[in-house]
Amino acid sequence: MFRVGFGKSGKYCDGVSRRHFLQVGVAGMGAASLSQILHAKENAEQQGVKAKDTSVILLWLDGGPSHMDTYDMKPEAPLENRGIWNPIHTNVPGMDITEMFPLQAKCADKFSIVRSLHHNTGDHFTGGHWMLTGRGGVSGGSTPGRNPSIASMATKILGPRDPSMPAYVSVPYASSIGLRPGYFGGNFLGVQHDPFETDSDPNNKDFQVKNLNLAGGLSIERLKERKELLKTFDQLRKDVDQSGMLSSMDRLDQKAYEMVTGDKARQAFDLNSEDEKIREQYGRHTWGQSVLLARRLVEAGTTFVTVHFGGWDHHWNLQSGYDNYLPRVDQAVSALFEDLAQRGLSEKVLVVLCGEFSRTPRMNDGGNGGPPLSQGTPGRDHWGNSMFCLMGGGGVKGGRVIGSTNRLGDAPADRPVQPGHIHHTIYRVLGMDPEIHFLDHSGRPTVAIDHGEVIHELF
Predict the structure, then answer these.
(1) Residues 212, 266: contact at Cβ < 8 Å?
(2) Hey, CA dihedral for 372, 378, 379, 383, is it positive or negative?
């Protein structure tokens, strides 16, 4: 293995510089990193879980999107609370959203909004860990993940919906508050349950997934010959291996080999083969094309796909940031729901949109502790006491609003919901048993979800 620098991303408000690295296999087939994240469905029957033909697309707004400026506006609140934009009606009576989401307003009957989500922390890392793993225990002072992501646990048990596809994919990469794969990873389940990252920008003209392409000069026939040669050396290792680990890795290597030499996965990742009208519908930008690729993957048989929408840490210049971001979110989300419906996939694919926390209901003065406007125009700070989560498809009913916040938008007013409620609901769609236990590093059994319940109103 070797590491290739993947450039730098911006800094979050904690001041930590993020440097991304991509691990690439040197065997010519990208088998090392790819095989580690593949897992067959061999555990499903043993665990007594009946798999369903459903999948999840999680659209992750990394940095913390404001509920007050998106899906839970407060037009009657004081000016400094209600924000910059006005609400508009949707095609669902009583479900008003920001005027920056005109496309979603036309298809609101296809999704529901949870407005009473909370975990009461304003720490990026704590909030991200809560939302992606269902547990706290980390902070800006201690960022390493302690638990596997809900996606890692689900795909460990359920595997892919089609054996020729990876079970868990992140587009274009898995990043939580700048950590890769961060809280999207398998943690104590092992790196083989980390997501497979496409890495390349799906909006690039020459987009391709490196781990699914042969190295220059390496044909399928030569790859087969190499594989046969490796078998000879592997047998020597097997003779002295008493743990069974090598045999297990051989099965994963075989999966990686099948993906490289087969057609299903390579066709699913081939975004350039998609209809141009569909590509325009999603938006010719990284977020739109990433969401389109996610749709192609779940349609082909991937169980869980995450899509990274970064840059939501708007302590200042919120208006200019949202003027740029919200139309892209609107286009990609509305296109996804319309596309899934047209393809007959609405009941098979659950779409989830959220971030690690929200932003303060009261806008600041743009000073960030200094003179007003010294950092920029007003923004909002960290807030985990009231948040939103959009959910639709996969059997989840559309056009519903779950819970509400008080008149200032700073706390739930009724039907309070925690991250575990969201996770239970996701597992209900997938047919995943939330009571399944996994052994942590110390050998202690840990239940998949330790709080909350299914949001029954969504069904």
Answers:
(1) yes
(2) positive
Query: Distance between CA 284 and CA 286 in Å, rounded?
Result: 7
Q: How big is the chain, counted in residues?
A: 459
Two tokens, residue 417: 């919901």
Report if residue 69 sits inside a domain. Answer: yes
Q: Give the DSSP letter string of 80-95.
A: HHH-SSPEE--SSTT-
CATH of the domain at 431: 3.40.720
Residue 196's H or E segment, with its range, is: strand 196-197
Instruction: Give the pLDDT confidence of 352-364 residue by residue, as tens digits.
Output: 999 999 999 999 9
Pairing of strands 387-392, 382-383: unpaired
The answer to whether residue 217 sits within a structural domain is no
Q: Which residue range forms the structural domain that includes residue 414?
A: 51-192+277-458
* Nearest to 199, CA basis, from 3, 62, 1: 3
Residue 7 lies in a domain: no
Res. 6: pLDDT tops 50: no
Amino acid found at 187:
N
Domain count, the chain: 1
Say which range, 36-45, 272-281, 302-311, has the weakest mean pLDDT: 36-45
Residue 35 lies in a domain: no
